[in-house]
Amino acid sequence: MNIDKLFQTFKNKKILVVGDVMLDRYMIGNVTRISPEAPVPIIELTQEEDRLGGAANVALNIVALGAQVILGSVIGNDPQGSQIKKLCQTAGIDDKAIYSTSTRKTTVKTRIIGNKQQLLRIDSEVKDYLTSEDEIAFLEQIKSIVASGIDAIIFEDYNKGLLTQKVIDNIIQLSHEFGVITTVDPKKNHFSSYQGVTLFKPNLKELKEGLGLQFQFPEEKTEFEKAIGILHQKIKNTYTFVTLSEYGVAISDHTKVDYYDAHVRTISDVSGAGDTVIAVATLCLVAECTIQEVAQISNLAGGIVCEKSGVVSIHPNELKSEMLKLFNS
Q: Catalytic site residue 275?
Protein backbone atom coordinates (compact mmCIF):
# COMPACT_ATOMS: atom_id res chain seq x y z
CA MET A 1 0.00 0.00 0.00
CA ASN A 2 1.25 3.49 -0.91
CA ILE A 3 0.29 5.36 2.26
CA ASP A 4 1.36 8.83 1.10
CA LYS A 5 -0.67 8.40 -2.08
CA LEU A 6 -3.73 7.37 -0.04
CA PHE A 7 -3.55 10.53 2.08
CA GLN A 8 -3.12 12.62 -1.08
CA THR A 9 -6.24 10.96 -2.50
CA PHE A 10 -8.23 12.00 0.60
CA LYS A 11 -7.55 15.66 -0.30
CA ASN A 12 -9.51 15.31 -3.56
CA LYS A 13 -12.63 13.92 -1.89
CA LYS A 14 -15.81 15.70 -0.85
CA ILE A 15 -18.00 14.08 1.82
CA LEU A 16 -21.50 15.05 2.96
CA VAL A 17 -22.25 14.22 6.61
CA VAL A 18 -25.97 14.11 7.40
CA GLY A 19 -26.96 13.79 11.03
CA ASP A 20 -27.85 15.29 14.38
CA VAL A 21 -25.47 18.10 15.24
CA MET A 22 -25.13 19.51 18.74
CA LEU A 23 -23.22 22.04 20.77
CA ASP A 24 -21.01 20.57 23.49
CA ARG A 25 -20.67 23.25 26.17
CA TYR A 26 -18.13 22.88 28.96
CA MET A 27 -18.22 24.86 32.21
CA ILE A 28 -14.98 24.18 34.05
CA GLY A 29 -13.84 25.22 37.49
CA ASN A 30 -12.59 24.30 40.93
CA VAL A 31 -14.52 22.84 43.85
CA THR A 32 -13.31 24.05 47.23
CA ARG A 33 -16.44 23.78 49.37
CA ILE A 34 -19.95 22.38 49.72
CA SER A 35 -22.97 24.66 49.43
CA PRO A 36 -24.71 25.61 52.71
CA GLU A 37 -28.04 25.54 50.78
CA ALA A 38 -27.86 21.85 49.78
CA PRO A 39 -25.25 19.06 49.94
CA VAL A 40 -23.79 19.92 46.53
CA PRO A 41 -20.35 21.18 45.48
CA ILE A 42 -19.86 24.84 44.64
CA ILE A 43 -17.82 25.35 41.47
CA GLU A 44 -15.78 28.49 41.08
CA LEU A 45 -15.97 28.91 37.31
CA THR A 46 -12.63 29.46 35.57
CA GLN A 47 -13.37 28.53 31.94
CA GLU A 48 -16.27 28.17 29.51
CA GLU A 49 -15.85 26.44 26.15
CA ASP A 50 -18.12 25.51 23.24
CA ARG A 51 -17.23 22.62 20.92
CA LEU A 52 -18.92 20.94 17.97
CA GLY A 53 -20.59 17.65 18.85
CA GLY A 54 -22.64 14.82 17.37
CA ALA A 55 -22.44 14.53 13.58
CA ALA A 56 -20.12 17.56 13.53
CA ASN A 57 -17.43 15.45 15.19
CA VAL A 58 -17.48 13.12 12.17
CA ALA A 59 -17.03 16.20 9.97
CA LEU A 60 -14.07 17.34 12.12
CA ASN A 61 -12.36 13.97 11.56
CA ILE A 62 -12.82 14.29 7.79
CA VAL A 63 -11.35 17.82 7.80
CA ALA A 64 -8.43 16.55 9.91
CA LEU A 65 -7.59 14.03 7.17
CA GLY A 66 -7.53 16.76 4.52
CA ALA A 67 -10.81 16.07 2.70
CA GLN A 68 -13.60 18.56 2.05
CA VAL A 69 -16.74 18.14 4.13
CA ILE A 70 -20.27 19.53 4.01
CA LEU A 71 -22.38 19.17 7.15
CA GLY A 72 -26.12 18.61 6.71
CA SER A 73 -28.36 19.08 9.74
CA VAL A 74 -31.28 21.04 11.19
CA ILE A 75 -30.71 23.45 14.06
CA GLY A 76 -32.77 26.02 15.91
CA ASN A 77 -32.98 29.62 14.81
CA ASP A 78 -31.30 30.62 18.07
CA PRO A 79 -27.95 31.87 19.45
CA GLN A 80 -26.78 28.29 20.02
CA GLY A 81 -27.44 27.46 16.36
CA SER A 82 -25.50 30.57 15.32
CA GLN A 83 -22.62 29.38 17.50
CA ILE A 84 -22.60 25.99 15.72
CA LYS A 85 -22.34 27.75 12.34
CA LYS A 86 -19.55 29.99 13.65
CA LEU A 87 -17.59 26.98 14.97
CA CYS A 88 -18.07 25.17 11.64
CA GLN A 89 -16.63 28.10 9.72
CA THR A 90 -13.65 28.29 12.10
CA ALA A 91 -13.02 24.53 11.68
CA GLY A 92 -13.22 24.58 7.87
CA ILE A 93 -16.55 22.73 7.70
CA ASP A 94 -18.91 23.83 4.93
CA ASP A 95 -22.22 24.64 6.66
CA LYS A 96 -24.37 25.28 3.57
CA ALA A 97 -26.49 22.18 4.25
CA ILE A 98 -27.33 23.25 7.82
CA TYR A 99 -30.94 24.39 7.88
CA SER A 100 -32.15 26.75 10.63
CA THR A 101 -35.79 26.60 11.75
CA SER A 102 -37.93 28.31 14.37
CA THR A 103 -39.81 25.02 15.05
CA ARG A 104 -36.89 23.50 17.03
CA LYS A 105 -34.14 24.48 19.41
CA THR A 106 -30.51 23.60 18.91
CA THR A 107 -29.33 20.61 20.97
CA VAL A 108 -26.91 21.74 23.69
CA LYS A 109 -25.17 19.39 26.11
CA THR A 110 -23.65 21.32 29.00
CA ARG A 111 -21.05 19.50 31.06
CA ILE A 112 -20.15 20.87 34.49
CA ILE A 113 -16.58 19.91 35.36
CA GLY A 114 -15.02 20.49 38.76
CA ASN A 115 -11.47 19.48 39.71
CA LYS A 116 -11.16 17.67 36.33
CA GLN A 117 -14.21 15.46 37.01
CA GLN A 118 -17.58 15.69 35.30
CA LEU A 119 -20.14 16.40 38.02
CA LEU A 120 -23.27 17.01 35.97
CA ARG A 121 -24.57 17.11 32.40
CA ILE A 122 -27.55 19.21 31.34
CA ASP A 123 -29.25 18.39 28.02
CA SER A 124 -31.36 21.03 26.32
CA GLU A 125 -32.97 19.59 23.18
CA VAL A 126 -36.05 18.71 21.15
CA LYS A 127 -36.12 15.06 20.05
CA ASP A 128 -39.36 15.20 18.05
CA TYR A 129 -39.11 14.36 14.36
CA LEU A 130 -38.88 17.22 11.87
CA THR A 131 -42.12 18.82 10.72
CA SER A 132 -43.06 18.00 7.12
CA GLU A 133 -42.21 21.60 6.12
CA ASP A 134 -38.73 21.31 7.63
CA GLU A 135 -38.23 17.89 5.99
CA ILE A 136 -39.05 19.34 2.55
CA ALA A 137 -36.82 22.41 3.01
CA PHE A 138 -33.90 20.32 4.34
CA LEU A 139 -34.18 17.75 1.54
CA GLU A 140 -34.15 20.50 -1.10
CA GLN A 141 -30.80 21.68 0.25
CA ILE A 142 -29.42 18.14 0.27
CA LYS A 143 -30.61 17.45 -3.28
CA SER A 144 -28.77 20.47 -4.70
CA ILE A 145 -25.55 19.46 -2.89
CA VAL A 146 -25.66 15.83 -4.07
CA ALA A 147 -26.41 16.99 -7.62
CA SER A 148 -23.42 19.36 -7.51
CA GLY A 149 -21.04 16.41 -7.05
CA ILE A 150 -19.86 14.62 -3.90
CA ASP A 151 -18.05 11.33 -3.25
CA ALA A 152 -19.94 9.93 -0.28
CA ILE A 153 -22.74 10.52 2.21
CA ILE A 154 -22.37 9.56 5.88
CA PHE A 155 -25.53 9.11 7.94
CA GLU A 156 -24.77 9.87 11.60
CA ASP A 157 -27.82 9.14 13.76
CA TYR A 158 -28.08 10.29 17.38
CA ASN A 159 -31.87 9.83 17.69
CA LYS A 160 -32.51 13.58 17.90
CA GLY A 161 -35.22 13.69 15.22
CA LEU A 162 -33.40 14.69 12.01
CA LEU A 163 -33.22 11.28 10.35
CA THR A 164 -36.90 10.55 9.69
CA GLN A 165 -37.87 7.71 7.38
CA LYS A 166 -38.62 10.24 4.63
CA VAL A 167 -35.23 11.94 5.01
CA ILE A 168 -33.40 8.59 4.97
CA ASP A 169 -35.31 7.21 1.96
CA ASN A 170 -34.97 10.37 -0.11
CA ILE A 171 -31.23 10.73 0.50
CA ILE A 172 -30.54 7.04 -0.28
CA GLN A 173 -32.58 7.41 -3.48
CA LEU A 174 -30.49 10.47 -4.40
CA SER A 175 -27.27 8.52 -3.72
CA HIS A 176 -28.37 5.77 -6.13
CA GLU A 177 -29.40 8.34 -8.74
CA PHE A 178 -26.00 10.08 -8.63
CA GLY A 179 -23.83 7.00 -7.93
CA VAL A 180 -22.68 8.14 -4.49
CA ILE A 181 -21.32 5.82 -1.76
CA THR A 182 -23.37 5.78 1.47
CA THR A 183 -22.18 4.80 4.94
CA VAL A 184 -24.20 4.61 8.14
CA ASP A 185 -23.46 4.91 11.86
CA PRO A 186 -26.88 3.75 13.13
CA LYS A 187 -28.96 3.93 16.28
CA LYS A 188 -31.71 1.54 17.37
CA ASN A 189 -34.74 3.62 16.27
CA HIS A 190 -34.02 3.44 12.54
CA PHE A 191 -31.77 0.39 12.54
CA SER A 192 -33.49 -1.36 9.62
CA SER A 193 -34.35 1.80 7.66
CA TYR A 194 -31.20 2.16 5.56
CA GLN A 195 -32.14 0.06 2.54
CA GLY A 196 -29.42 -0.48 -0.03
CA VAL A 197 -26.59 1.50 1.59
CA THR A 198 -22.95 0.75 0.83
CA LEU A 199 -21.51 0.26 4.33
CA PHE A 200 -23.43 -0.19 7.59
CA LYS A 201 -21.39 0.22 10.80
CA PRO A 202 -23.09 -0.78 14.05
CA ASN A 203 -21.21 -1.68 17.20
CA LEU A 204 -21.86 -5.10 18.74
CA LYS A 205 -24.50 -3.83 21.16
CA GLU A 206 -26.35 -1.97 18.38
CA LEU A 207 -26.27 -5.06 16.15
CA LYS A 208 -27.85 -7.23 18.87
CA GLU A 209 -30.41 -4.65 19.93
CA GLY A 210 -31.30 -3.65 16.37
CA LEU A 211 -32.04 -7.25 15.39
CA GLY A 212 -33.46 -8.31 18.76
CA LEU A 213 -30.87 -11.07 19.18
CA GLN A 214 -28.92 -12.38 22.17
CA PHE A 215 -25.52 -14.04 21.86
CA GLN A 216 -22.08 -13.84 23.44
CA PHE A 217 -19.04 -12.64 21.53
CA PRO A 218 -16.45 -14.06 20.91
CA GLU A 219 -17.82 -17.35 22.32
CA GLU A 220 -20.66 -17.57 19.78
CA LYS A 221 -19.01 -16.41 16.56
CA THR A 222 -21.41 -18.53 14.50
CA GLU A 223 -24.40 -16.65 15.96
CA PHE A 224 -22.62 -13.35 15.35
CA GLU A 225 -22.07 -14.23 11.68
CA LYS A 226 -25.70 -15.34 11.39
CA ALA A 227 -26.70 -11.88 12.71
CA ILE A 228 -24.66 -10.24 9.94
CA GLY A 229 -26.52 -12.42 7.43
CA ILE A 230 -29.91 -11.47 8.91
CA LEU A 231 -28.97 -7.79 8.73
CA HIS A 232 -28.01 -8.15 5.06
CA GLN A 233 -31.35 -9.84 4.27
CA LYS A 234 -33.17 -6.96 5.95
CA ILE A 235 -31.41 -3.94 4.44
CA LYS A 236 -29.50 -5.32 1.41
CA ASN A 237 -26.34 -3.37 2.27
CA THR A 238 -23.09 -4.05 0.40
CA TYR A 239 -20.78 -4.28 3.45
CA THR A 240 -21.33 -4.75 7.18
CA PHE A 241 -18.63 -3.37 9.47
CA VAL A 242 -19.03 -4.13 13.19
CA THR A 243 -16.88 -2.56 15.90
CA LEU A 244 -16.28 -5.06 18.71
CA SER A 245 -14.71 -2.88 21.42
CA GLU A 246 -11.76 -4.73 22.99
CA TYR A 247 -12.12 -7.51 20.38
CA GLY A 248 -11.36 -5.20 17.44
CA VAL A 249 -13.57 -5.13 14.34
CA ALA A 250 -15.24 -7.46 11.85
CA ILE A 251 -16.09 -6.69 8.22
CA SER A 252 -18.20 -8.69 5.79
CA ASP A 253 -19.03 -8.52 2.08
CA HIS A 254 -21.66 -11.21 2.76
CA THR A 255 -19.55 -14.00 1.32
CA LYS A 256 -17.19 -14.14 4.35
CA VAL A 257 -16.35 -12.30 7.58
CA ASP A 258 -12.83 -10.96 8.27
CA TYR A 259 -11.75 -10.21 11.85
CA TYR A 260 -9.05 -7.78 13.00
CA ASP A 261 -7.93 -7.68 16.62
CA ALA A 262 -7.78 -4.49 18.65
CA HIS A 263 -4.23 -3.15 19.02
CA VAL A 264 -2.82 -3.07 22.55
CA ARG A 265 -3.36 0.44 23.91
CA THR A 266 -3.73 2.45 27.10
CA ILE A 267 -7.41 3.41 26.85
CA SER A 268 -8.09 6.88 28.19
CA ASP A 269 -11.54 7.70 26.75
CA VAL A 270 -13.69 5.89 24.16
CA SER A 271 -15.83 8.99 23.49
CA GLY A 272 -15.97 9.85 19.81
CA ALA A 273 -14.10 6.73 18.65
CA GLY A 274 -17.10 5.61 16.57
CA ASP A 275 -17.14 9.01 14.82
CA THR A 276 -13.49 8.58 13.86
CA VAL A 277 -14.07 5.02 12.62
CA ILE A 278 -16.97 5.94 10.29
CA ALA A 279 -15.07 8.99 8.95
CA VAL A 280 -11.92 6.98 8.17
CA ALA A 281 -13.87 4.01 6.77
CA THR A 282 -15.78 6.29 4.39
CA LEU A 283 -12.64 8.06 3.14
CA CYS A 284 -10.90 4.71 2.59
CA LEU A 285 -13.92 3.41 0.65
CA VAL A 286 -14.02 6.42 -1.68
CA ALA A 287 -10.23 6.10 -2.11
CA GLU A 288 -10.89 2.57 -3.41
CA CYS A 289 -9.18 0.65 -0.63
CA THR A 290 -10.12 -3.01 -0.29
CA ILE A 291 -12.67 -3.69 2.45
CA GLN A 292 -9.94 -5.45 4.43
CA GLU A 293 -7.85 -2.25 4.29
CA VAL A 294 -10.94 -0.19 5.20
CA ALA A 295 -11.38 -2.30 8.35
CA GLN A 296 -7.69 -2.32 9.31
CA ILE A 297 -7.13 1.43 8.88
CA SER A 298 -10.39 2.36 10.65
CA ASN A 299 -9.56 -0.02 13.49
CA LEU A 300 -6.19 1.70 13.91
CA ALA A 301 -7.75 5.18 13.86
CA GLY A 302 -10.41 4.31 16.44
CA GLY A 303 -7.76 2.91 18.77
CA ILE A 304 -5.54 5.98 18.46
CA VAL A 305 -8.29 8.42 19.54
CA CYS A 306 -9.17 6.16 22.51
CA GLU A 307 -5.74 6.98 23.94
CA LYS A 308 -6.71 10.66 24.17
CA SER A 309 -8.86 12.27 26.83
CA GLY A 310 -12.17 13.74 25.63
CA VAL A 311 -13.61 13.78 22.12
CA VAL A 312 -10.75 14.41 19.69
CA SER A 313 -10.21 14.04 15.95
CA ILE A 314 -7.64 11.72 14.43
CA HIS A 315 -4.30 13.32 13.59
CA PRO A 316 -3.07 12.30 10.11
CA ASN A 317 0.59 11.97 11.12
CA GLU A 318 -0.27 9.60 13.97
CA LEU A 319 -2.44 7.50 11.66
CA LYS A 320 0.29 7.43 8.98
CA SER A 321 2.88 6.34 11.52
CA GLU A 322 0.68 3.47 12.79
CA MET A 323 -0.16 2.42 9.22
CA LEU A 324 3.53 2.26 8.30
CA LYS A 325 4.11 -0.12 11.23
CA LEU A 326 1.07 -2.26 10.33
CA PHE A 327 1.50 -2.58 6.58
CA ASN A 328 5.30 -2.77 6.49
CA SER A 329 5.73 -5.25 9.35
A: yes
